[in-house]
Amino acid sequence: MPIRRQLAPATIDASHLKSGAIEPGYTKVLARLLAAHALAEKLTASGYERALATVENQSLHHAISKNLAEERKHALLIYRLLEELGISEMAADRLLLTACKGPSFEAPQFFATRASGEIDLLMASLSLDMTGLIMISINYRESSYAPHCRAAEIILEEEADHDVFGMAGLAEAAKRFGPDRINSALREWVPRAVNFFGPPDSGFTYECIRLGLKSRDNQEVAELFLEVLERRLTQLGLVTPQLTDSYPRALAARSVN
Prior knowledge:
The chain is mainly alpha-helical. It has eleven helices and no strands. Helix 2 runs antiparallel to helix 6, helix 3 runs antiparallel to helix 7 and helix 6 runs parallel beside helix 8.
């Protein structure tokens, strides 16, 4: 049975929370959701900063620097929303000490700490910018928390070309490095990208949808991502890896080789 949304988009602001007009659980769920959004933006910024040092193709550095500046700005934007709730950046990150070690944070963690070179940069763009745009446009842009709605609109407007950068770069990389090498990288990165949406049917997501902080379950948004990705990769003559059905998603046996 579909989860019934109780709060309409952009109907709650910080004053409602401070006055106690909203159920206490709302602030707790909102804080965790904002913390996850902020940390993902911050780790992605760290990945772009790392890319400046590891990507030898100088023609990409202008775009990398631009993306880095925007990711930093957007992380700060979400952390400021948390500060309005009385939660510091450090405290927000502590809320995710366990979650950030799990499958949903593998893509941003890898990009921030281990990714190296042009292909990893393009795979991370696909795994974080494309997934982030889908997640923000479907869920966060219609959040019941009005400040998150406004932040989502800003992020979507400023990051629209991140996705274009990633797909254009992927097309060029397929020509230069060959489709076999790119397909191999896709087999490594696509499971991380899909898992970035988080587990399906979780109690936390149930509460997010009930309170109007999200519109759809993680599984629905992940499947939409895979549909869009497959269309794009097919146009480039590349292969979308086959994944297992259960979370955390991994390569299906027929995609390993």
